[in-house]
Amino acid sequence: MAFHEVSFPANLSFGSLGGPERRTEIVALTNGHEERSTPWAHSRRRYDAGMGLRSLDDVARLIAFFEARAGQLHGFRWKDWADFKSSTPSAAPGPQDQQIGRGDGVRRSFALRKSYQSGPARYWRPIVKPVAGTVLMAVGGIELRDTVDFNVDPATGTLTFSAPPEDGAEITAGFEFEVPVRFDTDRIAVSVSSFQAGDLPQVPVIEVRI
Questions:
Q1: I want to staple 199 with a disulfide (CB 3.0 to 4.6 A). Which of 66, 127, 194, 205 is the partner?
Q2: What is the pTM of this model?
Q3: pLDDT tens per residue, range 171-198
Q4: pLDDT band at residue 1 using 50, 70 and 90 as cut-offs
Q5: Could you tell me which residues come within 8 angstroms of residue 53 by beta carbon, excluding any fewer than 6 positions away?
Q6: Which residues does the UniProt record annotate as the domain DUF2460 (predicted)?
Q7: Domain spans of the chain, in order of start
């Protein structure tokens, strides 16, 4: 499968329904207890692109995008309006939003990630599709300059420093990001009369591993 570095129209994804999905395997024991495990290290997100359609022009744009991706064949970028930046939803991203790692005086490349914490539990989500031009970086609390002190690959989420961060220096970042996805169907069924009556087509979209 090829991946197209193109974003699904943001105004169409706004209002869509979706979010993270986990897979948990549960075995019920004879004593009434359970054993729970998961084969997934990371969650997978699902969305319904049909929920964001508001006019027949929107339907036409969706169909054009669908055809250009050849249905399920090619992946693309998706803006999840409920979770698209390193900061809280009401704040702008800042260079100290997320801890990326610590320098060792040798390593120059690091991967973007986002923390989800509740109580003592924490989940680190890999960020592989940052939005170009939105990444802010700091080392030891000192903000760095994009393209001068560091570079970011928007296709992988890998950032490379021009010089290795000092040993023990905390590396932090702030950013906006998108989700790598594909259509989860090879068919879109639209009826003009039904659409005008408020019946929206179902257009499932699913996150892909990069």
A1: 194
A2: 0.92
A3: 999 999 999 999 999 998 888 877 776 6
A4: low
A5: 12, 59, 62, 195, 200, 201
A6: 4-209
A7: 1-83+179-210, 85-177
